[in-house]
Every structure is written in C-alpha cells, then in structure tokens.
Write a structure and sequence with these properties.
By secondary structure, the chain is of the alpha+beta class. It has 12 helices and 18 strands. The strands form 3 sheets. The chain has a 7-stranded mixed sheet. Strands 7, 8, 9, 10, 11 and 12 form a 6-stranded antiparallel sheet that branches. The mean pLDDT is 93.
C-alpha cells in the first residue's frame, strides 16, 4: 500500500487541526476537510499571526509546511496529482481519515475538498473551445503593409543583426504548415532573434526589441496559438461564449490555426500575426492574446509595418465581456428576471445571488442554443423544468436540485459535463456520494474513498 494511505504520513497534519470549534473534528458530528496537490493546499490549520509591523514568514507556518510536504511526497510516490480528505477525531484521540481519489473523470475543487467539474463525456470541452475560425472571403492585407519598407527600416535600426536564411524560413513554414506573410519573412531576414546570437549581451537583445516594438520571439520558436494553450476549467469555460461581431477585426476564438505567435508584450501577453482575420480585419494584422482572457484577441496594428513605424501604441481595446444576448447573468445586481434573458441566441444562463422569489425557467424552455445553466441555491422554483432545456451540455446545480433530478430520473442525458455548487459547510462525503450518482449515469469512473484509522 502507498504511503499516502499510511496513517503516519498524515499524523503531523492531523495534530495541527483545530479542536475547539463546533465544526472541528473533536466536536460531536464534527470534521475537518481539505485538499492537497503538488502546487497548493487548502487545510483548516490555524496560523499564528505575526507581530504588528512584520509580514508572515515561512517560520510562522513551518509545522504546517512540513506536514503538507510529507503528504505531497506521498502523492509523488503514488503517482497522484492531488488528494481530498475529511478527518474525524474523537476527544480520546481516535481518528478516522477519509481519503478521496477523484479519478480521471473529476476535476479537483478550488480551495476545498469538494469535487470540481464532472466530465461525463471523455475528452469533451466547452463549446467555445470547439469553435473554428470562419472564412471571410476577400480578406486582404492592409495598405500599410510594405515588406520592402519594413526590411529597410529594420536594417537601419539593427545593422549588425544576424538574419535567417531562406532555407530556415522555408523550414519554419513547413513545420507550421502555413505560408508566412511577406512582412514576417522580411522581419526574420533581418534578424532571426536567436538568444544564442546575443550571448549574454542583454543590451543587444533590448536593441532588437526596441527596433521591432515588442519582445520578438525567435524564428524557430514561432508557434500556432492553438486551443489547448488556453485551458480553462469546465465550470468556468462553459459560462463563456465565443461570438464574432459583424464589425469585428479579430475573430472571437479561443485559438486559431491562423494565429502565429511571434513574440510577447513583456507582460505575458502573446503577440501574433493573424491569418484568419475577422469580417472587418486584414490578413496579416498583428493581434495580442491577453493572458488574463481565455477567449478572443485584441487588434494591435493593421500590419507589422504599421507597428514598427509607430511602436508607441496601446494594444488593449477595453472591450466588454458582457455578451448579451448570448450570455445572461441574472442576479440582484444585473438582470432581474429570466424573462429578460430569454432570446433565441441565448447560450449561457447563470442564476446568481438572489433574495427574491425563485425563478421559473418557462421562458427559456426550448431555446435552440441554450447549452449552459448554472444556478445558485434557492434560485430555481422547479428544477424539473430543466427537462425542457434540450440542448444543455453543462449543468451546475446545488445538491438539493440535483437530488430532485436524480430522484425523478430527470437528469438531462445530453450533458457533457456537470458540477455541484456546494458551500464549504457541506460535508464533502455527502457531495462525493452525490457526484458518484451522477457519474454512474454515464458509466464514468467513480470517486473512490479510503478510510484510515489511527490514534493521535
């Protein structure tokens, strides 16, 4: 048996759990719950506050760190990415530790022992991650694109740069499976932007970046901004929409085979040349993929020539992600009725914090594109109305509403993923069991539980 299931592995952590609160392990019916992964952990260990005027230091939480590191080492040994736990400890020191292996069909929760999204269909991704670029006939380069002027300007700014050969450029095109715009070829004929060419001379690298207007990537580092590079949890991605407006210069996509990354803003935002522009865009325009966004990109310049000749520009468009009528968020500070959200193009309906009467779904039943429903506790008047949402691929509900659907045999079978919205005061063991009931409907791998007994 793996050391992950050895009581001794967990004993240092169990000894740190609080014993004075009504909801802690030593209280009647009490428990403590948490989760640990290789890169983070969430455990209910009280921490000593540093004295006023001093920031918290590692030494202030050394016992917790040592205890967690012990479990992380066991995760590595077991080939596991994470573990969720529930601990019960009697006043005499007798302990029962419940360990949960979420398995391949369940994402870990965020900062809690509760499960994350349940993947009901192997390999499924939210709809925006399946969206392919449209072809807009007649897309042309902007008149400002001038490869000869671009090359001349860059050679003046970087007279000692080492350029790429035609063979190197052709090899890059073959590797990417695209024909690079003439501007991009002109750029790399002047400089191939290899760090090896600069050695440790950071000033030389800075001169290249200043000449171009951004942190230029090397020719051999060019890559396609593919969809998997912008991962987002199912329960978050399903609440997004990818919709390209008729006046858009850039298509609203997660990724595109025509977005060729050529550099960086210096702040983690990728710069790409766009070979699949939007309806009002230009072939070869320069765009920025914001690292804080998972969908879409912003227009940086109409052409690379335009950017190099006028580098002091701001790429951020300030576009709003409020996407009515495609995404509707109904709560006390937004739309205040489901009727206001109903629209033939509605894709996502999110029912948030609400202190009024629960909502009826009658006005959105039968909508042809409604693929996501997320509801806070107490917001649905009749969960069985969900049966009329025939196009759902993702459903997020509180435990009570899932119970209604399960007992009635009314869980929509067209779902690709699901989630249980439960607050931290809900016993993870109950939520894990509920998750297994949902997974079983799709014959998916279940969450497994191992109970370890010991004495502190």
């Amino acid at each position: 048996m793996s050391s992950l299931h050895d009581f001794a592995t967990w004993e240092p952590l169990l000894r740190l759990l609080p014993t004075t609160d009504a909801r802690t392990p030593a209280a009647p019916g009490g428990y403590a719950a948490g989760s640990i992964s290789h890169g983070s952990w969430s455990v209910p260990v009280p921490r000593r506050l540093p004295r006023p005027g001093r920031a918290m230091q590692v030494s202030d939480m050394q016992e917790e760190l040592d205890a967690v590191t012990r479990v992380q080492a066991a995760l590595t040994e077991a080939g596991r990415a994470d573990v969720a736990f529930v601990a019960e400890i009697s006043a005499s020191g007798r302990a029962a530790l419940h360990l949960f292996d979420l398995g391949p069909a369940v994402d870990p929760g965020i900062g809690s022992a509760h499960p994350g999204a349940l993947l009901l269909v192997e390999g499924a991704v939210p709809e925006p991650w399946r969206r392919l670029p449209e072809n807009f006939p007649g897309a042309r380069s902007d008149p400002s694109a001038d490869p000869a002027l671009l090359e001349h300007t860059l050679r003046e700014r970087m007279p000692d740069a080492i350029g790429a050969t035609e063979e190197e450029i052709a090899a890059t095109e073959a590797r990417l499976g695209v024909t690079l715009p003439e501007e991009i070829k002109a750029l790399y004929r002047v400089t191939r932007a290899n760090w090896e060419d600069w050695g440790d001379d950071y000033e030389k690298a800075e001169r290249v970046f200043d000449a171009v207007g951004f942190e230029l990537g090397s020719l051999h580092g060019l890559h396609v901004a593919e969809v998997p590079h912008r991962h987002l949890r199912w329960e978050h991605g399903a609440l997004q929409a990818a919709v390209t407006a008729p006046e858009a210069a850039v298509q609203d996509l997660v990724g595109s085979p025509g977005w060729i990354v050529i550099g960086d803003t210096g702040g983690g935002d990728r710069i790409a040349v766009d070979l699949t522009p939007g309806p009002r865009g230009h072939l070869g325009q320069i765009i920025v993929l914001d690292h804080e966004q998972s969908i879409g990109a912003d227009l940086y310049a109409e052409s690379l020539t335009d950017l190099v000749l006028d580098p002091g520009r701001d790429w951020y468009s300030g576009r709003s992600r409020d996407q009515l009528p495609y995404v509707a968020r109904v709560h006390h500070q937004s739309l205040r009725s489901v009727e206001d959200a109903a629209h033939p193009d509605l894709e996502v309906l999110s029912l948030g914090v609400w202190d009024g009467e629960p909502f009826s779904l009658a006005s959105v039943v039968g909508l042809p594109r409604l693929r996501t429903l997320s509801a806070y506790p107490g917001t649905l008047a009749d969960p069985l109305q969900i049966a009329g949402l025939t196009e759902l691929e993702f459903l997020e509900l509180p435990p009570e509403d899932w119970r209604v659907l399960l007992d009635a045999g009314a869980v929509p079978r067209g779902l690709s993923a699901a989630a249980i919205r439960a607050y931290s005061d809900r016993d993870p063991r109950v939520i894990m069991a509920l998750a297994n009931e949902i997974l079983a409907l799709w014959d998916r791998p279940l969450i497994t539980e191992t109970v370890i007994d010991g004495t502190l």
